[in-house]
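queue> holo job accepted (nicotinamide-adenine-dinucleotide)
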Amino acid sequence: MKTVTVNASKSYDIKIGPGLLGSLGTEAAKLGKAKKIAIVSETNVYPLYGAAAEKSLRDAGFEVSSFVFPTGEESKCAATYLELLNFLADNKLTRTDLIVALGGGVVGDLAGFAAATYLRGIRFIQIPTTLLAAVDSSVGGKTAIDLSAGKNLVGAFWQPSLVLCDTDTLNTLPYDIFIDGCAEVIKYGILYDEAFFTYLESIGPDFDREAVIARCVEMKRDVVMEDEFDTGARMKLNLGHTIGHGVEASSNFTLSHGKSVAIGMAIVSRASHCPENDRIIGILKKFGLPTATETDADTLLRYALSDKKRSGGTVNLIIPEKIGDCAIVPTPVEKIKSFIEEGL
Ligand code: NAD
Ligand code: GLY
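queue> job finished
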C-alpha cells in the first residue's frame, strides 16, 4: 500500500493498494466525529462493491444509507444533485457526518459537489473505481455537475477528507474504459516526468497499477498544492483537452473522453513541432489510443473558442516542449485555426 499526502486548503491522505475497501470503516472512524455515512454510487458500481463498503462501515459502528443513481454522464445533472441533497436531508445527515463517493469520475464529481454544498459543506471520502478517477478526478477537489449548456459548468473546489483507492476494483473495469484512463496516465508523463514516460513506453498497458497510480497522484498532488484554485500551473493538466474536447463534443460524445484527449495531445504535439513528437504518437499507439480525427479544423476551432479556459482574446494552449516539460502558451484566437490545421 502506498500513501500520498496532500496539503492544500485541507490536508488528506490518498491510500492506494489492493484490498483497501475492507478498511473503509476503520479509515472513516479515524476521521472522527461522524455517526452517519451516506454512500453515493451508481447502478454499475454499487452491485459490485456496495455491499462490501456498507459492511465495512457498519462493522465500524456507522449508520449507513446508500443513494444509487443510474450510471452515466447524463446523471451528473441538477435533477440527480437535488435528489441526492433531499436524500441526505431525509436521512438527517449533520455537518459532522460523511459522504462516501463510490465509483468513477461521475460519482466523485456529483457526490463531491453535494458534499461541498449540503449544510454549506460536509466531509467526503473518495473511493475511485476507474483508472481516470484514481489518477485524476478523485484528487484535487474539483467537483461539478453539468448543465445542458455544457459539462462541469456548476461546481466548487472542495477537497475530500480521504481518498481510498482499492486497486482490486479496477479488475472489473471493462478494458476499453481502462485504456481511456491510460490517456491521462500518459499525459502526466508528458507533462512532468520523462523517466515515468519511458517506463510506460517500455511496458505498455500492463504496468504496475499501484506504483503508476501513486506516481500520477504525486504529480497531481504537487500541482494542486502549487495552484489549488486553477489560476496558473494547474492549467497544464489541460494538455490535449482543449482540442480533445472539440473531438469529443463533435462526435456527440460517442468517442470517449480518454480517446479524445489522446487525439488532442497528438494534434498539439504535431502542431507545435515538439521535437519528441514521434515518442508521443508512438506511446499513444502502443496503448491502442487514437492519434488522428476526421473532424475538420473549423469545427475544432469553434469548440476551442468556447472552452472554459479561454480568457478574452487568447486561449491557453498547453504545449509539450520535450517529454516531462510543457509550457502554458496564451495563443491569440486568430492563430488557433492554423495551429489546429498544422496538427491534423
Ligand atoms: P464514469 O464514472 O462514468 O465511469 C465510466 C464507466 O465505468 C461507467 O459505465 C461506470 O459504471 C463504469 N465503472 C466504474 N467503475 C467500475 C468498475 N470498477 N468496474 C466496472 N465498471 C465500472 O467515468 P470516468 O471516466 O470515471 O469519469 C468521467 C467523469 O469524470 C466526467 O464526468 C468528467 O467530467 C469527470 N472528471 C472530473 C475531474 C475532476 O478533477 N473532478 C477530472 C477528470 C474527469
Ligand atoms: N482534471 C484537471 C484538474 O483537476 O485540474
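queue> The longest strand covers residues 314-322.
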